[in-house]
Design brief:
This protein is of the alpha/beta class. Helices cover 36% and strands 25% of the residues. It is globular. The protein starts with 5 loop residues before the first strand and ends with a helix. The structure holds guanosine-5'-diphosphate and magnesium ion.
Length: 171
């Protein structure tokens, strides 16, 4: 039997956007309200994606690392999720610089990437429109998901991780 493929995924984005909540939601289908914001963790997870068992190693970054550490995480990963918070425009503005750094670190390789706008349950205090997220994702030629780590009804969180695995496997 063929060895199951392994992909290394790293989650980036400003502190507080919900990276840890998203990872925990994906791994446990539960929402945990408070998570140590300075914590950086890796998790292993297996999932059946398109009839193939894929082993993921997921790095939940703290979002406040210095540049050397950040670049190290970027070199480590095969695929990346950049998260912003739809209620925090500043977090959205940090997406493009992160992506540019990724391109720089990974060049000349193409960077498998997924953009996630989190906290869609907080629509009443939204600062970033869905179309803005879609436009940015189109510019970066990557998939885009709006989702909520705390009210993930449609399974968009898992879909984002699975799509990233597919993207990595396509390269
Ligand atoms: P991180 O710093 O990016 O890892 O962010 P955390 O996962 O620690 O989340 C930061 C804060 O946002 C916490 O208070 C979470 O409870 C909250 N949070 C995370 N995801 C969501 C979400 O989808 N909706 C809402 N309403 N709050 C969220
Ligand atoms: Mg965190």
């Amino acid at each position: 039997m063929a060895k199951s493929p392994e992909v290394k995924l790293a989650v980036f984005g400003r502190a507080g956007v919900g990276k840890s909540a998203l990872v925990v939601r994906f791994l446990t289908r539960r929402f945990i309200w408070e998570y140590d914001p300075t914590l950086e963790s890796t998790y292993r997870h297996q999932a059946n994606i398109d009839d193939e068992v894929v082993t993921m190693e997921i790095l939940d970054t703290a979002g406040q690392e210095d540049i050397q550490l950040k670049e190290g995480h970027m070199r480590w990963g095969d695929g990346f999720i950049i998260v912003y918070d739809i209620t925090d425009r500043g977090s959205f503005e940090e997406v493009a610089p992160l992506r540019n750094l990724l391109e720089e670190v990974k060049k000349p390789k193409n960077v498998p990437l997924v953009l996630v706008g989190n906290k869609s349950d907080l629509d009443h205090v939204r600062q970033v429109g869905t179309e803005e997220g879609e436009r940015l994702a189109a510019e970066m030629a990557c998939a885009f998901y709006e989702c909520s780590a705390c009210a993930d009804d449609g399974g968009a969180v898992a879909e984002a991780f699975h799509e990233l695995c597919r993207e990595v496997r396509r390269r």
